[in-house]
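User: I'll paste a sequence; please echo it back and then give the predicted structure.

Assistant: Echoing your sequence first, then the prediction.
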Amino acid sequence: MNALELLHRVADGWHRAPSDDLTAQRVLDAAARQLELFGIQRTTMEDVARRAGVSRVTVYRHFTNKDELVEAVVLQEVRRFLFDLGAFLEDYETDEDRIVEGFAFTVARLRHHTLLQRLLEGEPELFLPVLTTGSGPLIAFARNLIVGYAAPRMPLVPPEDLALGAEMGIRLTISLLLNPDGVLDLDDPERLRGLARRFLPLAW
């Protein structure tokens, strides 16, 4: 499974409710850690079973193959990120503050996301195309998630402007993640906020 196929599978599975099975969660957490340490290609179902402290049969009972397990891990990470982002933004009252703070939060979180950085650095041949020449599906997926979150909270913003603003933020975030070296200190939250205030509101 390449990264584009993985993205499509995550998008297809987005509306499925997460499992509340404790053993499945234990396996997922073990798989996430294994992927952080060794990447996708060097991770096996046996490795995950060993790290989770369960039998290989137990892992296969919950996830039929490694592709399904990796998909579940990525879906879990996306959900956790969006939950944290949503909780963070509830403290802000204006649309501008949500845009500015949401952008700064997203860049900081993704820059230091262990699994994402491990995959980008350790298996660039799998993931760089999805973030560069083949980034259309990723942008669409992220845009739809952002619009779905923002639409009920920003009812006065026209849908087309909401989608455009979301896409601008996504494209800018991808650029900063792939090319962090420049005049902007990405570890300075106030500089990130200034960037958002200067460029992102143009779409609104």
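The chain has two domains: 1-73, 92-204. The mean pLDDT is 90.
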